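Entry for the shared binder. Reason: the reviewer on the internal report wants the predicted structure included alongside the sequence.
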Amino acid sequence: MNSLLRIGAIALGAVAVIGATADSSRAGECTTLGSVGTGINEGVAKFMADAALKNISEDKGLKRTGAVSYKCEAGAVLTDCHAKQKACK
């Protein structure tokens, strides 16, 4: 009888570990994508950064979620925009 209880406890412990691993792997399926776009003004640079995010997410088989955050810097001639967005499987 004690051996049956011990086997049951070990099996229950194994199920708990497998469940915890599955939850943590689901949380790890999201990532932050980043891209850079360059253009003659901020609007064009953002458009190019968005296009790059789209291409990256499609290439990796990810679905983009949430808002895109931008950080743009105007240079002497061109503007660079760095874009970031969360993406999940």
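Summary line for the report: The chain has one domain: 2-88.
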